[in-house]
Every structure is written in structure tokens, then in C-alpha cells.
Amino acid sequence: MIEIDVAVLRLPHGEGLPLPTRQTADSAGLDLIAAVDDGMPVILPPLGRALIPTGLILAIPAGHEGQVRPRSGLAAKHGVTVLNSPGTIDADYRGEVKVILINLGAEPFTVRRGERIAQLVLAPVTAARLVTVDAHDATARGAGGFGSTGVAGG
């Protein structure tokens, strides 16, 4: 596993909360934590969504991105996921990291201060340089998409 340093600025409403950490030695993601007011949890009704603060500003190193992904336990147990998954934190962004949570479950879900709400995975970025051409090479698939290769295993 490759490790890189990421500078973190903790905002006042993030004071007292632990920094995101990996839960096991081989975990890919750091668990992001809700920095909501202790006395005012956020209640997500079914199909409700909210922007949840983390209380952190990250300086992602150039050539990398931060990917905000759902936590599988929240999704499996409660139907709560990250709406724009994966969300991207660009290397030049210097605002607070916030997570758009949506409740796809049948019951209201309460987001409390200090709760692990999402994962942050750092990934290298390959910058694309688009080049116009007059034609593309032919492939067996061609322009077939959206189910054109079938759905049955085999």
C-alpha cells in the first residue's frame, strides 16, 4: 500500500472529533465522520437527503483526487448511501468536505455527531487530453451499449 501525506485543517465544528482513519490495516478508505451539532442530529426521512459536514478541509496532493464513497454497512442495514457516489474532491479544492447522504430505506435515519458516514479513498488521477479524429477503429461491439451484450451469465 502506498501512503501519501494529506494536510488537514480542522474547522471549529470539527473540534473534538477524531481524524478519519482506516479501520483495518488493509482498508482502502478512511472513514469520514459527521461533524453535526451534538444537540441537533440530522434526521433523514425515507428518500430524504442532506449535506453532512465533516469539519475538515483537506489539501489533496496534486495528481490525486479524493473519492467519497458509501459505507457498505449503512447501505445494507439502513439503505443510506452517498448520493453522488463516488463524489470527487479535486486537488485544488480548499473548502469543507461535506457528504451528500440519501436515505433509500423505509425508515427515518438519524445522523449523529461522530458517526462514520462515508469513506474517503485517495486515488491517482490520469489527465485526459482529448484529440479529435476523423474516424475510430472498428470493434466487434461497435456502438452497442445499454444491455447490448446481454444479461444472462454463461
TrEMBL record:
One of its GO terms (biological process) is dUMP biosynthetic process. The keyword Nucleotide-binding does not apply. Its EC number is 3.6.1.23. Keywords: Hydrolase, Magnesium, Metal-binding, Nucleotide metabolism. GO terms for molecular function: dUTP diphosphatase activity; magnesium ion binding. Pathway: Pyrimidine metabolism; dUMP biosynthesis; dUMP from dCTP (dUTP route): step 2/2. Substrate binds at R71, S72, G73, N84, T88, I89, D90. Its cofactor is Mg(2+). It catalyses: dUTP + H2O = dUMP + diphosphate + H(+). Residues 18-150 form the dUTPase-like domain. It is an enzyme of class 3 (hydrolase). The keyword NADP does not apply. Belongs to the dUTPase family. PANTHER family: DEOXYURIDINE 5'-TRIPHOSPHATE NUCLEOTIDOHYDROLASE. This enzyme is involved in nucleotide metabolism: it produces dUMP, the immediate precursor of thymidine nucleotides and it decreases the intracellular concentration of dUTP so that uracil cannot be incorporated into DNA. This is Deoxyuridine 5'-triphosphate nucleotidohydrolase. It comes from Siculibacillus lacustris. The gene is dut.
